[in-house]
Amino acid sequence: MGSAAGWVWSIIHPLVLWASYVFIFQILQTVKLENGLTDSFPLNLFVGMLPWLLFSETVQRSASSIVEHANLITKTMFPSEILPVAIFLSSLASNMVVTALTVVVAAFYQGHVNPALAMLLLYVPVIGLFGVGLGWITAALQVYLRDTAQMVTVMFTFWFWLTPIIVQPERFLGWEHWVLRLNPMAYVVQAYRVMLLGRGAPAFAQVATAVGFAVVTFVAGGLFFRQMKKGFADVL
After folding, report:
1. Residue 151 included in any domain
2. Mean pLDDT over the full length of the chain
3. Which of the chain's termini has less CB crowding within 10 Å, N or C?
4. pTM of the prediction?
5. How confident is the model at residue 35 (pLDDT cuts 50, 70, 90)?
């Protein structure tokens, strides 16, 4: 039997996740926004979830990609490094549909469209470089340590709460502020909110920091994968 909804599930899943967070944090426990961009918690939350869902899906699916395609890798000259890239591109397709719908809703609710929205063309590749770089690392480790995928799932549970998606950045005070400074996704999430909900562009320093994290991770991940790839056929 085939899937009745098909690709629509890729939209249903984030919507259900978003609705559950809205119910908990807006209905059961009222959260006041202090970012000066919007007074709508549901809209603020969903915009913050957009880059996170693309990034987390890329890395978590990549973690088991090599092991799942072991037959291709051991019996053919299949370029295994392309798997995390393909996963990012497939995740991007559904994410762009949801992003387009969010832009329409945000424009209607906020009453304006930010010209800086065009900077999404910069931030999508940033998420891709960062996600694929980490995807290469986790995919290679999974070949040798089969608990890696489970460890990644646990890591992303903590990472989600350390990113200003639900907990607003204004709440990170004192030493907690360094959590944001060292968290690449914090810069991306905040940039998405400025682009979709605000009227200006993300600060240059934040853009440069996000790009820097992404490029370094991509290069490091590629070098690590290339080194570990030499033993894939023997272990798989």
Report:
1. yes
2. 85
3. N
4. 0.86
5. low
